[in-house]
Amino acid sequence: MIRLDNLTKAFATPAGPVVAADRVSMDVADGEICVLLGPSGCGKTTTLKMINRLIEPTSGKIYIDGKDTDDYDPVELRRTIGYVIQQIGLFPNMTVEQNICVVPKLLGWDHEKAKRRARELLETINLDPALFLARYPKELSGGQQQRVGVARALAADPPVLLMDEPFGAIDPINREVIQDEFLKMHRRLKKTVMFVSHDIDEAVKMADKVAIFRAGKLEQFASPDQILAHPANTFIADFVGSDRTLKRLRLVRVGDALEPRAPTVVASDPLERVRELMHEHGQKIMVVVDALGRPQGYLDRDVVANLSGSAAEHRASLPATVRVEDDLRTAVSRMFMHDVRWMACIDRDGVFTGFVSQRGITRLLGETYRASGGAH
Amino acid sequence: METLEFILHNLPAIGQRTLEHISIVGVAVGAAIVTGVPIGIAITQSKRAADVVLYIASMIMTIPSIALFGVMIPVLSLIGHGIGYLPAVIAVLLYSQLPIIRNTYTAISNVDPALREAARGMGMSTLERLRQVEIPLAVPVIMAGVRVAVVINIGITAIATYIGAGGLGAFISRGISQTDSRQLITGALTVSLLAIVADYTLLWLQHRLTPAGIRVARHRTRRPRTQSLPA
């Protein structure tokens, strides 16, 4: 766990002292990603750099796993904390392998062990060791370089990772890919990550906790959903954007917004049976599935009211489906695209698992406002 | 034609003089690297110190070599080396400081701040950072300074013959005093040839010492060259 306790940094300037961080206190639990967010000059990077003592605090304490970082030699301390910067900073005179082995070497690891570690890490970041170990940084693309930068920070398996706008210099398409990769890796490695960003979308995507800074002060420290749903003040509300409720769509999986599981019918069922089921469950829509449970189409109560025959004869095709592990943003986007109010959800094997509807989503997102008794 | 004949007849003497010449320049520039590189690194810590040191080194550069030799005679006479090898080596050592200190200073201060930040953040001490990152990256520029020093001082050493240090300058001085164009041309030719050969040899060495990872990018890095030549 990382605990910042009244952390303050004042820089002396010709125009008098400037307070870059003003009594910042927060607790970040083990294995969490905490995004330090705010406009430039708000103190987020200063706060980050005080954790590995690249900047010495004017006052206040930092504890990592309960131990005061002041008790360590700064150089020793930094070797136990992974560090990734926006400019990547791979050493151009070293190969990828040598770059990754820097900290293990500083820690006096055995040569073979360090080499094995480099191989293992390259595999983790999806770069073929046979191809990349002996390459120099200039022979890599920007995205590959930053992957190696992350691998280098993880080399000595530090429990804590500091990342200073790590993906800021990467083009938007690659950034998404690397963010996804990083999240996947994080789920496995469970490092405690402090992550500086100025991009609210990145924060919403990556963070377990978001710390919003303004002028050196920590303005709000909460989960992304809390910050989007209940910004503490107008500054934060403006910073996270007027579309903040839409941003919350990213935070919810389709699986968590499913309507209570609806009954299904198979193609050979007669319409009488369909109408009976619709009546029984109060459903306006009935999805037709095949023998494996995969959706084949649907029947609408108004359409089939006075018809006869089998479900197969009258079913309409589903314009779109959405997978349970997609986020709600994907679901809503697809609904708008196909001009529908609801969609059938399928799991990994394509089996129908329920509906997601516009009304259901509205209700879900609105819960937090109703609970707090007022709308923001 | 007769110059060629002279050269052919005096090959052993030319070889001898060349070795003397190389010995003066080699020892002096070697010592200049050992002193100038640490000074160049040290002054990256303070802008003020850098200004002062570079100013002094530039001033030394403006002293005409013949005057420097003259000034050193009474001083070094105290230890019985008023003329000869030692003052020649000291003069070359002094003239080499500017290109070597300046290039080292420029190269180290031009190392990408992001690399310094990454190195510090990963837990390298100042010495580890210098040894593993900054010096390897600075080597091409430092070597360029060494090349400049060597080429300049091959010329200066030719004058050292007047204080009895030997070297290829002996042919030139004798050629002048005896109005013997054969010796004069021989001296001038061999000094020039030595400078060219030394420059290319050091260029080759520079390439060899440049880390492979920055070799291709090398032509893009700014390589400051010393332009000022001593009188």
Average residue-wise pLDDT of chain A: 90
> Distance N terminus to C terminus of chain A?
32 Å
Order of helices and strands of chain B: HHHHHHHHHH
**Number of E strands of chain A:** 16
Count up the helices of chain A: 17
Task: Give the amount of beta strand of chain A, in percent.
Answer: 25-35%
The CATH superfamily of the largest domain in chain A bears the name P-loop containing nucleotide triphosphate hydrolases
| Cα separation of the termini of chain B | 32 Å
Q: Strand count, sense and closure of the main sheet of chain B?
A: none
**Percentage of residues assigned to helices of chain A:** 25-40%
Low-pLDDT windows of residues of chain A: none
Q: Average pLDDT of chain B, to the nearest integer?
A: 89
Considering residues with a beta carbon less than 8 A from a beta carbon on another chain, report the largest interface and each chain's count: A-B, 28 and 23 residues
Give the biggest sheet of chain A.
6 strands, mixed
Q: What's the total number of strands of chain B?
A: 0
Strand content of chain B: under 5%
Low-confidence segments of chain B, given as residue ranges, are 217-231
Task: Write structural notes for this entry.
The complex is a heterodimer of chains A (376) and B (231). Chain A is α/β, with parallel strands linked by helices and 376 residues long. In chain A, 38% of the residues lie in helices and 25% in strands. Chain A has helices at 44-51, 74-79, 96-100, 102-106, 111-124, 129-132, 142-154, 172-189, 200-206, 224-229, 234-240, 244-248, 271-281, 301-304, 311-314, 328-338, 358-372; strands at 2-13, 16-28, 33-37, 59-64, 67-68, 81-85, 160-164, 192-197, 209-214, 217-222, 264-266, 285-289, 295-300, 321-323, 342-346, 352-357. Chain A has a 6-stranded mixed sheet, sandwiched between helices. In chain A, strands 2-1-4-5 form a 4-stranded antiparallel sheet. Chain A has a 3-stranded mixed sheet with strand order 11-12-13. In chain A, a hairpin with a 5-residue loop joins strand 12 (285-289) and strand 13. In chain A, helix 5 (111-124) crosses helix 7. Chain A is elongated. Chain B is an all-alpha fold. Chain B is elongated and about 65 Å long. The relative contact order of chain B is 0.15. The interface between A and B is medium-sized, with 28 and 23 residues.
